[in-house]
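Can anyone check this?
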Amino acid sequence: MINRNANLNENIRAKEIRLVGEEETQIISTSEALKMAIERNLDLVMISPAVNPPVCKIMDYNKFLYEQSKKEKENRKKQKTIDIKEIRLSPSIEEHDIDVKANNAKKFLQNENKVKVSIRFRGRQNNYTHVGKEVFDMFISKIGDVGIIEKPAKLEGNNMILILAPKK
């Protein structure tokens, strides 16, 4: 609505302004509007300088800025940050180890976090990337209906990466 660098009181250079108030809008001279603001112990604030004549309002500007900062703090508190947790697997992982890692991934997903599952291929394992896909398929079957695949398995260099998101 109003920016923090708004023109205030004597800094308003226009000769005529459109004064927006509780009662009605009126076009009056800047000096008259400034006198009205001083009588009420308030500030004359330019809301919209782009229109002709510029739109101004009489208000307590410091109180307005304080309320805006309180609203911004409230909005920041309500925001939910999503963390990405990583689980690393290997192409030669055993089924029990996959169960343990899948249980950890379930905990992460139930806490509304995303999970990045990666498999690192070393040496000759690079020739057998299909084994990595099988490990991912087994891992996803263990996760069940807690998470969904946000980004399917993709080979990036020596790593195969899969991203899971919590089911809503």
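Reply from J.R.: I decoded it. The mean pLDDT is 87.
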